[in-house]
Amino acid sequence: MTTTIISGGLVITAADETRADVLVEDGKVAALASPGSAYARGWSADRTIDATGKYVIPGGVDAHTHFELPFGGTSSSDTFETGTRAAAWGGTTTVVDFAVQSRGRALREGLDAWHAKAEGKCAIDYAFHMILSDVNDGSLKEMDLLVGEGVTSFKLFMAYPGVFYSDDGQILRAMQRSAGNGGLIMMHAENGIAIDVLVEQALAAGRTDPRYHGEVRRALLEAEATHRAVQLARVAGSPLYVVHVSAEEAVAELVQARDKGLPVFGETCPQYLFLSTDNLAEPGFEGAKYVCSTPLRPREHQAALWRGLRSDDLQVVSTDHCPFCFSGQKELGRGDFSKIPNGLPGVENRMDLLHQAVVDGHISRRRWIEIACAAPARMFGLAPHKGTITPGADADIVVYDPHATQTISAETHHMNVDYSAYEGRRVTGQVETVLSRGEVVIDRRRFTGRAGHGRFVPRATCQYLN
Ligand code: DUC
Ligand code: ZN
Ligand code: ZN
Fold first, then answer.
1. Local structure of residue 204 (DSSP, 8 states)
2. Taking phi first (over 0 means left), then psi (-120 to 50 degrees means alpha), and beta for anything else, what does residue 53 get?
């Protein structure tokens, strides 16, 4: 049995901030004690980590990543090995990635393929959601089996006709099924049929630059789809989690639903909080670096997102990490924005950017831990093992230096992508040491983990409602 004491830090969870020593035994949190009392209590340790002057926080839970995702004629550039290592560098100790059902194929085939990509490769623990691209009698039945295997959430798309798109009838049927089996429906809420008309019209008029990606994917079409998804979930009697909310008008739809007491939840991502259409409009095709869907919005939308995060109308910040290199991948869309692979890197940056939001006064320290660790763990059935520091929980712990400053850059990041969406941004706060189930995977800013340490975590059903 290996024991570690993390001494002298400020332990921050979503519920509390206390100065405490943390005893880790056999990969789990064994106890918390008032600072300096560890030895008086007779604790002994193989290793002591001095966290004086530092925060001791739960490892981040990023509930939205795409490693090795085939998309837009290419594949996202982080593997499970590089992506989970970068996550660890950024203080994230659990990721939930999206396995994909191909059209005309079984969920089982897609899930097996994602298990094969991840197994033996991950530096931190991982779990899967399932993307439904083909809702039919077979896939509906398979949803029950997946819930039994710990894949308890299913993403549906109201966008990308001909690829991932489901029509309203298919969505309703999947929601009815999840109402019965405890699964959580995650919705990509954009009206893809209308967007495709606007794409065609823009290209025909010669509007081919990256910024038109943001213009055709109108905020109103995100709001309309969000509204429709909420009504369909009401009819089905199922809860609903809307992913990557970016538009103020979509937040308003969620607020309206939640004010009615409906079990409707929302996620936003750092790119919508920190970036804007100004980035999409950067000259010389640089805007391609910021093409993702839902798209970046004018910066005026950011206030509604921060407000939603403070008021709990938005519950989770995940990354939608889906990196494509500028060179050779984003470049596929030169002369036609609709051919730019959609997605941004960010799995390494989320915890730091959200700490910067604490420094800037957008959210409190405890809210930082709630939206980045505790809420995603509860939402996706990972609690009480993940997302908090309490006796019995997995010892997924980050020693965080709140005073260190750093400049985010592709030169120094660990994601397998040739640019940073946050290049040159100065932030206060930095991950110092990271434990994953008690094993030190980052030791004072040196990677000490290994591919294969990370395990698949079968998840319970959504605990947010309990
Ligand atoms: N949005 C992205 O930006 N990338 C992958 C899929 C998605 O919905
Ligand atoms: Zn999506
Ligand atoms: Zn996504």
1. H
2. left
Q: What pLDDT is stored for residue 40 in this prediction?
A: 75
Q: Do β-strands 184-188 and 153-157 pair in parallel, antiparallel, or remain unpaired?
A: parallel
Looking at residue 466, its pLDDT comes to 56
The ranges assigned to domains in the chain are 60-379
pLDDT number for residue 44: 84
pLDDT in tens, 197-231: 999 999 999 999 999 999 999 999 999 999 999 99
Distance CA 174, CA 111 (A): 17
What is the pLDDT, as a whole number, of residue 183? 97
Fill in the DSSP letter of residue 387: S
Angle 380-386-392 from CA coordinates, rounded to 5° = 130
Residue position matching structure tokens 């926080």:
57
The tokens describing 141, both together, are 């039945």
- Around 331, how many Cα atoms within 13 Å sit in the side-chain half-sphere? 6
pLDDT at residue number 36: 81
Q: Is 188 in the pocket of ligand 1 (CB under 6 A)?
A: yes
Measure the CA–CA gap between 378 and 312, rounded to whole angstroms: 14
Tokens at 242, concatenated: 């809307």
Highest CATH level, class, for 60-379: alpha beta
Give the contacts of 436 (CB within 8 A, at least 6 positions apart). Answer: 59, 88, 93, 123, 124, 125, 396, 449, 453, 454
Predicted local confidence at residue 37, as pLDDT: 82
Pocket flag, ligand 1, residue 292 (CB < 6 Å): yes
When computed from its CA atoms, the radius of gyration of the chain, rounded to whole angstroms, is 21
Closest Cα to atom 7 of ligand 1: 293
Nearest CA, atom 8, ligand 1: 293
| 293 in contact with ligand 1, CB cutoff 6 A | yes
Please list the ranges in the chain whose pLDDT falls under 50: none
Q: Give the amino acid at 288.
A: A
Q: Is 343 in the pocket of ligand 1 (CB under 6 A)?
A: yes
